[in-house]
Amino acid sequence: MNQDDPLRTIDLLAEDYRAARTRLADLIAALQDEIEAAKRRRLPEIRATVAQVADARAALEQAVADSPRELWSRPRTRTLHGVRVGWATQKGRLVWDDTADLVQAVRRRLPDRADELIRTREEPVRTALARLDPKTLAQLGVRIEGAGDTIIVRDAIGELDRLIDALLGDTLKETAI
Predict the structure, then answer these.
(1) Is the dihedral of CA 107, 112, 114, 120 positive or negative?
(2) Are 77 and 88 in contact (CB under 8 A)?
(3) CA dihedral 94, 98, 103, 106 (to 10 degrees)
(4) At what angle do helices 6-66 and 159-176 cross, to 10 degrees?
(5) Residue 177 pLDDT exceeds 50
(6) Are the C-beta atoms of 24 and 164 separated by less than 8 Å?
(7) Residue 146 pLDDT
(8) Mean pLDDT along residues 107-126
(9) What are the angstrom distances between the C-alpha of 65 and each of 32, 56, 68, 74, 100?
(10) What is the dihedral sign for C-alpha 156, 157, 162, 163?
(11) Mean pLDDT for the stretch of residues 40-68
(12) Residue 13: how many CB atoms within 10 A of its CB?
């Protein structure tokens, strides 16, 4: 770094960085164009195959449903041509229309088990705490981590950063290994 004019050195390095990012953006745009062209070429065949897969699955499900149940007593499933078919018992999931009504029903019908069946959650509200001044936060024992000065090198364009990060995130992780 030029000790006599560090801003000039930073300016030259920023220019190099911009040129490299512009080249990268151009390459990514070309790649996206190729991907879109490939999608357009393959999409009709993919749509037709998706319909074939759906039809084949429906036919297979219907054949299992129409087969005698004793065929599936032991074992309840079989793997045929890499496809697992048969019957399985689903656990299901609990559903209710109104949480407040359910809480009232538990309190009314099972009052001795209400603490077990009803969750009462007290927790701080981050958005409300963020509006407090630093002195009050300190009095409450709340710290602010990650605040302060830090060096940034970020493209002013923004959207390009997100796209590049998404496209290169895995690549950068792989090269770090």
Answers:
(1) positive
(2) yes
(3) -60
(4) 80
(5) no
(6) yes
(7) 80
(8) 91
(9) 45, 14, 8, 16, 40
(10) negative
(11) 92
(12) 12
Q: DSSP string covering 22-91, please?
A: HHHHHHHHHHHHHHHHHHHHHHHHHHHHHHHHHHHHHHHHHHHHHS-GGGGSSSSEEEETTEEEE-----
> Would you give the distance in Å from CA 19 to the centre of its chain?
32
Residue 54: how many CA atoms within 13 Å on its side-chain side? Answer: 6
Paired with 86 in beta bridges are 77
Taking CA atoms, 20 is separated from 27, 110, 144, 171, in Å, by: 11, 68, 36, 17
Report whether 119 contacts 111 (CB < 8 A).
no
Helix, strand, coil shares, percent, the chain, to 5: 65, 5, 30
Q: Which of 157, 115, 150, 148 is nearest to 18 (CA)?
A: 157
Prediction pTM value: 0.49
pLDDT band of residue 147 (cuts 50, 70, 90) is: confident
Average pLDDT in the 131-140 region?
89
